[in-house]
């Protein structure tokens, strides 16, 4: 009898492009100062935690959640002032919505186009859905290469374009006029991914009515709710009607649905925290830029991108000092020796700056 191992079956049936992938790695950060994942660093005030505890205690977890997540959508509408003419779809993080959007548009042979380097889930979701991915390199200073983007759109006729605005991991906002050119030239959907909107000065949300092929994607992860896993997309109802067919029926769990409206109503607190993070960002930028051999790039997010003399060594040195950042060296030629550092609390940022002095 031939003995067959799991690996034989895997090799026979799992798609080679999936076998060639590594699972998205999330490093452990227990006991460390965590400046690697663009989280909001502030714990919630005690009174708010008590209200959340009471709301969670009242959730009937034996029942499925509301499939339409109506309370969350209503809270988002109020918080953002979304007009009735536009619709919302919510996801288990905006990661899930990237996958839902990609799956919906993945006609055989269809292409997804995005600048690179950008958020890695775009390319991954294209691969999951069997969509052709076309990456267009950014310019050296991380601006869009608009001529190459427009040429790519003309050549590939992509069903889907992703633009992170501001961009991760580079931190900059692309020129709004160039995004407009892309919206006008694209034959398909253009997703403007505003994960970092709270730290930027621009948004395409007020311009949704102007462009029939625009979806604005957002998340609450960077403003203090990463653990809830809640992302949302705002679009014309014609788009959300299709996306809702691909979304899993109960994709937003009951606990998130109970908690998110409570926090979304705390607009003042969230805005205050975002403002403090923006001022800490300016402080980190200027101290880092004054270090010999360090180049700091302009950012409109809650992270700082810095090119250092030896990123692997600096990353290891910081880790040794109990500080976790993201080492981007090796991820893309434009990111050589770059570290991405999430803005922390003032005390965490002090610790980072002190540790950097000992590494050098
Ligand atoms: N878009 C961009 C540009 C991001 O940087 C991130 C988070 N790294 C996401 C989407 C996903 O965020 P979440 O799934 O937490 O909503």
Could you walk me through the main structural features you see in this protein, from its secondary elements to its overall organization?
The protein is α/β, with parallel strands linked by helices. The protein is built from 13 helices and 13 strands. The strands form three sheets. The chain has a seven-stranded mixed beta sheet with strand order 2-8-7-6-5-3-4, with helices on both faces. The chain has a four-stranded antiparallel beta sheet with strand order 9-10-13-12. It starts with 5 loop residues before the first helix and ends with a helix. The mean pLDDT is 96. 4'-deoxy-4'-aminopyridoxal-5'-phosphate (PMP) binds next to helix 5. 4'-deoxy-4'-aminopyridoxal-5'-phosphate (PMP) binds at residues 38, 93-95, 119, 164, 168, 193, 195, 219, 221, 226, 231.
Q: Count every beta strand, where a strand is a DSSP E run of 2 or more residues.
A: 13
**Sheet with the most strands?**
7 strands, mixed
Overall geometry comes to globular
What hetero molecules are bound to the protein chains? Answer: 4'-deoxy-4'-aminopyridoxal-5'-phosphate
